[in-house]
Amino acid sequence: MTTVQGARARARIEITAAIKDEARRQLAAEGAAKLSLRAVARELGMVSSALYRYFPSRDDLLTALIIDAYDTVGAAAERAHAAAVRADPRDHLAHWVAVCRAVRAWAIAHPHEYALIYGSPVPGYTAPQDTVVPAARVALLLVATAREAYRDEGVALPPLPDDLAPEAERLAADLAPDLPPALAVALVFAWAQLFGLVSFEVFGQFNRVVEDRDAFFATAAERLGREAGITPRPRA
């Protein structure tokens, strides 16, 4: 790459970042449904035709913001998991709780981005295939945590009702073929409840209900792990 090409590439990265930053400000002020390329261009002092060279449509910009949001919450969860593993490689319940707490912390710090990916759908927008892998990062990390616990004999398998067995087998085949179907079902339960808890807090449903939310969530996250079959490490 020549010096000129390198400068152009850096400029493109900087302008793309500025566009996304302004779009996030609009998300916070107006919501995703009112995101406008023309408004973003106006705030940045750009003509609309110049901005279209970076994002040809509002949906392209939304997709970039969605992928960024999924990637940042996923990265936060992965860092927390890695730190918990370093602290105690065999305390799988602690690894699970660390992931859950990282998701909550990110959501509280970035409520508008959380709402973009876990709130109401944006009218007229359909997420493309590009969002699937980033969206799965947290879920896959929870599955990986349960897998490590299972391999380390740290899982107490929950009972599986007969009428749920076919769905459990399908979930296991799709999500974790190496894990028992009962565990796959328990993980989906826990994953849904985790984001339900976080959404209740971010969207104000706990107002005038739960006061000590840190303690409440820490207990809830541990219970979710236990319900997913992850047992605490025996203490010496």
UniProtKB/TrEMBL annotation:
Keywords (A to Z) from UniProt: DNA-binding, Transcription, Transcription regulation
Domain annotation HTH tetR-type: ranges: 13-73
InterPro entries cross-referenced by the UniProt entry: Homeodomain-like_sf, HTH-type_TetR-like_transc_reg, HTH_TetR, MT1864/Rv1816-like_C, Tet_transcr_reg_TetR-rel_C_sf
The keyword Repressor is assigned to this record: no
DNA-binding region: 36-55
GO molecular function: DNA-binding transcription factor activity; transcription cis-regulatory region binding
Name of a matching Pfam family: TetR_N
SUPFAM superfamilies referenced in this protein's UniProt entry, alphabetically: Homeodomain-like, Tetracyclin repressor-like, C-terminal domain
Protein name: TetR family transcriptional regulator
